[in-house]
Amino acid sequence: LESFAAWSGGIDAGLEGGDLFPAANCADGYAQQVGQPPARLEAAGELALAACRRLSRSVQASFAEPDGWADVRSEIRGDLTERRTRAAAPPRSDDLASRVRPLAGGPLEAFCWTSPDWDELSEEWSIIDAEEFRLLGFADRDADRVHLAPEVCEPLRRFFGSNYAPSLNEESLDLAVALVTLAHEAEHLRRPEASEAAVECVAIQRVRDLVRGAGRGAGYENLMSGLAWDVGYPEMSAEYRTAECHDGSWLDVRPHTSVWP
Hints:
The structure is a single chain. The protein has 2 domains: 2-77; 89-240, no CATH class. 60% of the residues lie in helices and 5% in strands. The chain is built from 11 helices and 3 strands; from the N terminus they run ααααααβαββαααα. It has helices spanning 2-17, 21-24, 26-33, 42-62, 72-88, 94-104, 115-128, 150-161, 170-190, 196-213, 218-232, and strands at 109-112, 137-140, 145-148. Strand 2 (137-140) and strand 3 (145-148) form a beta hairpin.
């Protein structure tokens, strides 16, 4: 995967800088830099080479980048994720699914992964997409499923399954992040076309719904949503933030109130 990242990164750099040689000769570059992948990655290699051939034909014919090349990382990441998910068979959490179902707008399944399997999946994502930070969850829109990291599931289990309510410490921030992650992946199922920034903005506001649904009071709603907004949100990458995320904007889920977030 590291050699794939170097190969595809070189093609991207060439396209951005006007050097079309790596794109036009991407198959030769693949053979030299990547080579024959192991059996587990053969399908991913076929996806990469197919996109490479389309790119090469397009560059040689018209010096234009084809639409498909921009999607090659997403396609490969999807293939790796599907295979890793089948192999890991993460346990299902009916409780988390029921908690977040109203936010997703329909039935769904929630899965809590174990650390070794999730760590390997997260590492693969980070290699394929250098901009991907620590993976906390992802949504499978085709199957109406959300998949969650161990560090997300553990505080959620304690929160929804007991009177666990950490306050003004590191555990409280961990819980706030976990609640946002759960709401974020549910929002992806509800609005598959929405950007990461729009989804994250809505998810932070939906923390209140999850806290209220767990039977906690308004004070704890304010604490969790405040931590998510004041501490968590500023640390998110630019892709997950937008200036439109504010009280009264089109992303405000309670536009007729002054409650924020």
